[in-house]
Amino acid sequence: MKKFIVFLMSAMMMMSLVACAPTQPKVETTAPDPQVMASTGGASDKVPDPNAEPMEIISVYSKNDDSTGLNQAMDAVSELTADAMVDKLIEYSVLEDGTKVLQFDKKDDGTATLDLSQMPEKGTTEDLLTLTAVGNTFIENFELDKLKILVNGKNYSNDQIKQGDSDYLEYVKNYKKIK
Hints:
Elements: H1 2-20, E1 56-63, E2 70-77, H2 82-91, E3 101-106, E4 111-116, H3 126-141, E5 146-151, E6 154-155
Parallel strand pairs: 4-5
Antiparallel strand pairs: 1-2, 3-4, 5-6
């Protein structure tokens, strides 16, 4: 009888050990359909769309609220072109709607010439902010040293700003406080 009880106890002990042993998780062999999955707001939702068009990250400079300097914003364009930059400057209310790039000529020496169809002229010191916003946007994104701005093929000039043939814009580091 002692042998039977020892055998019964051993069997019960083995069964309890097997029941407590960790099991391998089931592995799903097929990938779930991404179009059927619901958005959960988690990390898995941050997977980029493989069909999305690649975008170029750009900096856009625009006038700050009190018109004493510029703000810098990061945005994206599908292709880094002068037309895309002007469209973003229109979107940020730096340039007026309808402004077109007549010509953009980037040289190997780090300079470029931008010929626009129009530039806003308010006859105030805001013109300097507009000019600086356009200059900083183009100089930074196209990695230029200097930028020459023309309006309809002529040097940019108004009542306060007179640019000559040898006048170029350079990047303004202290853009947050200009006046």
